[in-house]
Each structure stands twice: as structure tokens, then as C-alpha cells.
């Protein structure tokens, strides 16, 4: 995003959007409307991991041709869930290769008989490479976990006699290679005195467990054959009016009419328009504000789009409603501005990780996490280190939690990972991330990578290209990547809008020496700011802490050490907070699972909450700080109170 140029984009927005996307079609979140129906396929699926030596028996024996149980034993597997921690079979926990899911479904008669209906199969995410068959017919392939993909399966279901029984088979491969995102390597260990023949391990270069499977919802939904395929909205503000630029893509026919209405939170129409693109003006606008920044945060309008079309089979109509938050985002040399006011990110890094479901989407966990975020007084998080479920993003819009939306560009640690195939795939992934999340007011910045080896020349070129591509996809938001390189050596920093820095003083360096943190942090900030004159976010800092370990004076791994480390960081952050440091995100919101290693005790324990979402002492410290910062930075100034804990012993 050009610096301080939010207003200029107001005029250019509709022209610029959509010019760079190479993807076919939109990826609107499925919703029920007078013209659309949904059928969730969550629940128990049949499952088998292919333990054959080459992991290809499923393809050799064509398991997709017949019901899965006919080709061998199956087990029950819940969807959504990671498959790793569900069974008692340790081989499945560490499995690398193809796993097979299958589910049968009977469709409503109308879906199979009404030829004006289009039936779509949508998979919320499949980590990491997926092939989908419907009734044995190869239907869809997708590379990359954490993002949705879908296929029009009308041709497959609108044939033959009733009832239409559908068999959906999905083969998923979790292998990470130098050209996947995240990348990884497969290492064959050939010393036969130590390893059996064909023995291999999956090496990864990131610090979380490579959970896999159908980790988000799978569903079927319908649209009419002429349908609203995509909507892109950008917003800006002119005096006290909000401007909503919309662009709508319609598929299926060129003979259609579009009507657009913008409704306020009380369902009153405040503006309307027609056609595939236009600008809606909202006098006396209620802006979308981040949580705690304003007494009326997260205000959402609804953009109702109505399509009527003529088809050879008669008229059809389609309805889709998109939540819209009107806000502006801009970056200056030293500030991050939302609605023209300085915004300070006081928040967390997260992972989609909890107990036996691994990275499987879960409503209770989602709501609990957001309640904890609000308890904490956090106003932001980064989707470290991959895009989170769409429901999470919707919640951020509704609660006013600001998001740095990170793609799975994590673990780009080796020179061989900066190759042309990876670059092309990385750009495609950014297209998919932007396509999915572009309309969320909560998303204010894209992060294209976490801790790439950005001191390498090849990484500099690679990051430059991915960042430029992301900016061309979405000129309305800032773009960054998260660095842990030295300021003098980093080859990617020239291309970002905001510098995001991870540092672990007194943890991975000078461990135990808390007294060094303030000096080292000041040096870090001053060096980077002097060189780049860009706002800085401390995007990670923290300490491994086993809940219940205590020692005073503090020693590493105790709750006291985590608290003291945070306190020292906070003193350092406060020195620069009103100058050019625009945010702090603790590592991590909650403990999470990693690969086994001598430095990890049942996972990474840098959470301020345990993996079960119970607070460590540091959570109370951070809570006090975040509410204090919120009260200082609130606009217009007034004291905010914790909403959820009026009479709590903690307030
Ligand atoms: C980092 C990484 C994060 C790790 C964290 C740690 O810099 O970005 O993925 O989990 O450090 O705890 O080591």
C-alpha cells in the first residue's frame, strides 16, 4: 500500500481490484439464502492410511473406484479434525504419505432433478495435497493446506435414477517437499546397521506439529446455474460519509440484472446500486473500529446482492449477503492508522491447535479463545503461521479483533527453497489467501512469510516478487513478512510496509540474563528504524514456561521467569511505543504441539495460557498491560472497562 494513501484508493479501488487474480472463480463463504442451500458433511468419515512401502497402494488398487471398505479395513475418522491424535496407533500419529477419507451422502431430490440448480462440493481445507473423486470420478485436485477449494459437481449428480447416492473419496498427502508451502524435505536414512531398508523421515523447518487431514468443514451447497460468483468490497471515508466500492462477478450467463442494497445494523437500507460495480455512499457512517479503540467497535453493514437472470430453462435469481465493515487503513513512516487514528497492536500470536483434534476446527474452542482475547484486552493477532478457518475471520470482524493474515510461508530456511517452482506456488497461495479473506475488515495486513532466510540474495528476490504480487492483488492493505534476520543483512525488508521482528532475548540468547533485555531491545529497534524509517511491530517474544513451575528469584521455564521476561520487554517497548513501535504480539497465546525434540516438553510451552486454555501467571500481567494501553489509546478518550469481568476477583 502506498503510504498514507487511503483516500486515493477510494477513487481507484474499483478499477484496480480483480486485475491480477489468475484463479478461476471466487471463493465466497457458503451461506443459505432464498436461492442457496447447504448440506454439511461433518461427522464420521471412513478412513484408511496407506501404510504400503511406496504409499501408493491406494492408487495401484484404485481404492476410489469402489466403497473403501471393499479394499481393506477402515476406521472411523471425525471431520473436521486432524487424524494424528485420534487413534491409539502411534504409526498414524507420525504418518507421512497418503491417507484416504470416504463418505456417502444422499442428496435432496431437488438438487438432482432441477437443472437450474448447481451443486458444489467445497472442502474447507485439506492438508496438504488432495485429490477428490465423486462416485469414482476424478473431480478435483488441490495443492496446499489451510485454504478452501471447490468443484461444481452438478454433472455428476444430475444423472441417473433416484435416489442420488454420492460417494465422496478424498486422498490427502501430508508430505512436505522443497516446493510445498510450508516446505520440507524427505530424508532417506540408508545406514542399514541403524535403519531398516527404505527408512525415511520428514524434516520440517518450523516449530509446530504438522497436523493433517480434513481439518475444516466439508460441505455441499447449491446456487442457481447463473450465480453470484464473487464480490469484492473496498471501503474509504470522505468527511462523515463512508464509501463502499463493490465489484461483483457473475457466472453462468451474460443476461442478468444485479441489485445491491447496503443495510445498517438495524436492517435499514442506507444505500443502493445496480450493476456489477459501483460505489455506495453512506452519510453519517458508523465506522468499523477495532476492539477497545472506540466505544462502538466492529460495526458491520450488510451488502445484499440480488441477481436475476434469464436462462434457457427460465428465469433464476440468486441472493448473497456480505458483511461489510467500513474503515480505512494507512501506514506512515512511524504509525499504523485505522480510520486516520494511530493504532497500536496489543495482541497475540496463535496457532489453531488444541488437544486431540489437533488443528481441527471446533466451535467451543473458537468462542473460548475469543472470550480469552477479550478478557486479556487483546485487540489483534497474527494468524501464525497459516490462514485460519474462515469462521475465525468472521469472528474477528464481529468482535473487532484486528488480523495480520499470514500465509503458510513458514520454514523457508534452506537456500533450495527459494526456487522458481516455489515462488510460483507461493504467489498462487497468496492469490488464494487474498481471494478468501479480502472482504474482512478485520484483516489490515498480509504477511507473506515467517522467518524466511531473508539474509540470502535469492530470498531477497523471492520476497520482493511475492510482496509485489500481493500488493497487486490487494492495493488497499499493507504487506509484510516477519523477520528474525539482522537489520543489516535482511534482503526482504526494503519491500515491506511495516517491519515485523521476532526476537527472543534472554531465551535463545544470553539465556537467564533478563538484565540484558532492555539494552538489546533498544539496539534492535534503533538499528531497524534508522535503516528503514518504517513502523515496527515486535511480532514475537516470549519464554518457555511449564505451568505450575515456580522459582524465585526466577529461573528459566518457571512462571516467574516468563513474567519477568515480559516485564523487561514491556519496559523496552514502552521506550519506543509512542515513537515508531506500533505493536507487540506475545509468543504465544497458548501452548501448542510440536515435533518431538530435546528442547520441547510435549510441545511449545510459551503460551500465556496452557493448551487447555488455563492462565499462567503471565496472562494476568499481560492483561493488566493491555487494558492500560487500551485506556491510553482509546478514541475518543474514555476509560474502558473489562466487559466480561466486572465483578471478577481479577479486575
Ligand atoms: C519463532 C517462530 C515460532 C516458534 C518460536 C519459538 O521465532 O516464529 O514459530 O514457535 O520462535 O518458540 O521458538
Looking at this protein, list some descriptive labels.
651 residues; alpha/beta; Jelly Rolls; Immunoglobulin-like; TIM Barrel; 3 domains; eight-stranded parallel β-barrel; six-stranded antiparallel β-sheet; 12 helices; disordered N terminus; binds (2S,3S,4S,5R)-3,4,5-trihydroxy-6-oxo-oxane-2-carboxylic acid
Describe the structure.
With 651 residues, the protein is of the alpha/beta class. It has three domains: 37-174 and 210-223, Jelly Rolls (Sandwich), CATH 2.60.120; 225-324, Immunoglobulins (Immunoglobulin-like); 329-634, TIM Barrel (Alpha-Beta Barrel), CATH 3.20.20. 21% of the residues lie in helices and 29% in strands. The protein is built from twelve helices and 30 strands. The strands form seven sheets. Strands 23-24-25-26-27-28-29-30 form an eight-stranded parallel β-barrel, surrounded by five helices. Strands 3-2-4-9-6-7 form a six-stranded antiparallel beta sheet, with no helix packed on it. Strands 1-12-5-8 form a four-stranded antiparallel beta sheet. Strand 29 (536-540), helix 11 and strand 30 form a beta-alpha-beta unit. The radius of gyration is 25 Å and the shape is globular. Mean pLDDT is 94; it is low at 1-21 and 645-651. The structure holds (2S,3S,4S,5R)-3,4,5-trihydroxy-6-oxo-oxane-2-carboxylic acid. (2S,3S,4S,5R)-3,4,5-trihydroxy-6-oxo-oxane-2-carboxylic acid is lined by residues 206-207, 385, 450-451, 484, 502, 540, 587, 604, 606. (2S,3S,4S,5R)-3,4,5-trihydroxy-6-oxo-oxane-2-carboxylic acid binds at residues 206-207, 385, 450-451, 484, 502, 540, 587, 604, 606. It is an enzyme of class 3 (hydrolase). This is Beta-glucuronidase.
Amino acid at each position: 500500500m502506498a503510504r498514507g494513501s487511503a483516500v486515493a484508493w477510494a477513487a481507484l479501488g474499483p478499477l484496480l481490484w480483480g486485475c491480477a487474480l489468475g484463479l478461476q472463480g471466487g471463493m465466497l463463504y457458503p451461506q443459505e439464502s432464498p436461492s442457496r442451500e447447504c448440506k454439511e458433511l461433518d461427522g464420521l468419515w471412513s478412513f484408511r492410511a496407506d501404510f504400503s512401502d511406496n504409499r501408493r497402494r491406494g492408487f495401484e488398487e484404485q481404492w476410489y473406484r469402489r466403497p473403501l471398505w471393499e479394499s481393506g479395513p477402515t476406521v472411523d475418522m471425525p471431520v473436521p479434525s486432524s487424524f494424528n491424535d485420534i487413534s491409539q496407533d502411534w504409526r498414524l500419529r507420525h504418518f507421512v504419505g497418503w491417507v484416504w477419507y470416504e463418505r456417502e451422502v444422499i442428496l435432496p431430490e431437488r438438487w438432482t432433478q432441477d437443472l437450474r440448480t448447481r451443486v458444489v462440493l467445497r472442502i474447507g481445507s485439506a492438508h496438504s495435497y488432495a485429490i477428490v473423486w465423486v462416485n469414482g470420478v476424478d473431480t478435483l485436485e488441490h495443492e496446499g493446506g489451510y485454504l478452501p477449494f471447490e468443484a461444481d459437481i452438478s454433472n455428476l449428480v444430475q444423472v441417473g435414477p433416484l435416489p442420488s447416492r454420492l460417494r465422496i473419496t478424498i486422498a490427502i498427502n501430508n508430505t512436505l517437499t522443497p516446493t510445498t508451502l510450508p516446505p520440507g524435505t524427505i530424508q532417506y536414512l540408508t545406514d542399514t546397521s541403524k535403519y531398516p531398508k527404505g527408512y525415511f523421515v520428514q524434516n520440517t523447518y518450523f516449530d509446530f506439529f504438522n497436523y493433517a487431514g480434513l481439518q475444516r468443514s466439508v460441505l455441499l451447497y447449491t446456487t442457481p446455474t447463473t450465480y453470484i460468483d464473487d464480490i469484492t468490497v473496498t471501503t474509504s471515508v470522505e468527511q462523515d460519509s463512508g464509501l463502499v466500492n463493490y465489484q461483483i462477478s457473475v457466472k453462468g450467463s451474460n443476461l442478468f440484472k444485479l441489485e445491491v442494497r447496503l443495510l445498517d445494523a438495524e436492517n435499514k437500507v442506507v444505500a443502493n446500486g445496480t450493476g456489477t460495480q459501483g460505489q455506495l455512499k453512506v452519510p453519517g457512517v458508523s465506522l468499523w473500529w477495532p476492539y477497545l479503540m472506540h466505544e462502538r467497535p466492529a460495526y458491520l453493514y450488510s451488502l445484499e446482492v440480488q441477481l436475476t437472470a434469464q436462462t434457457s430453462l427460465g428465469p433464476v435469481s440468486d441472493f448473497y449477503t456480505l458483511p461489510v465493515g467500513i474503515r480505512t487503513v494507512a501506514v506512515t513512516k512511524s504509525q499504523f492508522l485505522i480510520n486516520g487514528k494511530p493504532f497500536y497492536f496489543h495482541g497475540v500470536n496463535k496457532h489453531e491447535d488444541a488437544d486431540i483434534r489437533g488443528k481441527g476446527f471446533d466451535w467451543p474452542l473458537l468462542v473460548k479463545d475469543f472470550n480469552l482475547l477479550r478478557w486479556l484486552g487483546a485487540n489483534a493477532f497474527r494468524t501464525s503461521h497459516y490462514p485460519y478457518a474462515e469462521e475465525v475471520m468472521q469472528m474477528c470482524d464481529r468482535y473487532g479483533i484486528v488480523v495480520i493474515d499470514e500465509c503458510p510461508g513458514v520454514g523457508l530456511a534452506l537456500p533450495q527453497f527459494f526456487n522458481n517452482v516455489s515462488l510460483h506456488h507461493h504467489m498462487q497461495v497468496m492469490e488464494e489467501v487474498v481471494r478468501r479473506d479480502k472482504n474482512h475488515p478485520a484483516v489490515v495486513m498480509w504477511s507473506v512469510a515467517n522467518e524466511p532466510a531473508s539474509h540470502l540474495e535469492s530470498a531477497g528476490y523471492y520476497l520482493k516478487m511475492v510482496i509485489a504480487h500481493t500488493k497487486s492483488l490487494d492495493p488497499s492493505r499493507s504487506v509484510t513478512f516477519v523477520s528474525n534476520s539482522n537489520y543489516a543483512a535482511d534482503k526482504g525488508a526494503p519491500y515491506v510496509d511495516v517491519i515485523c521482528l521476532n526476537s527472543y532475548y534472554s531465551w535463545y540468547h544470553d539465556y537467564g540474563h533478563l538484565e540484558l533485555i532492555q539494552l538489546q531491545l533498544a539496539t534492535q529497534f534503533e538499528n531497524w528504524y534508522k535503516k528503514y524509517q518504517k513502523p515496527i511491530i515486535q511480532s514475537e517474544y516470549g519464554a518457555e514456561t511449564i505451568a505450575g513451575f515456580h522459582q524465585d528469584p526466577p529461573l528459566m521455564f518457571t512462571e516467574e521467569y516468563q513474567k519477568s521476561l515480559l516485564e523487561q520487554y514491556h519496559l523496552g517497548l514502552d521506550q519506543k511505543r509512542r515513537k515508531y513501535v506500533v505493536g507487540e504480539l506475545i509468543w504465544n497465546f497458548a501452548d501448542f504441539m510440536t515435533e518431538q525434540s530435546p528442547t520441547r516438553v510435549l510441545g511449545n510451552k510459551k503460551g500465556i495460557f496452557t493448551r487447555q486454555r488455563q492462565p499462567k501467571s503471565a496472562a494476568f500481567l499481560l492483561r493488566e498491560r493491555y487494558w492500560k494501553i487500551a485506556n491510553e489509546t482509546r478514541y475518543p478518550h474514555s476509560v474502558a472497562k473489562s466487559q466480561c469481568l466486572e465483578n471478577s476477583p481479577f479486575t
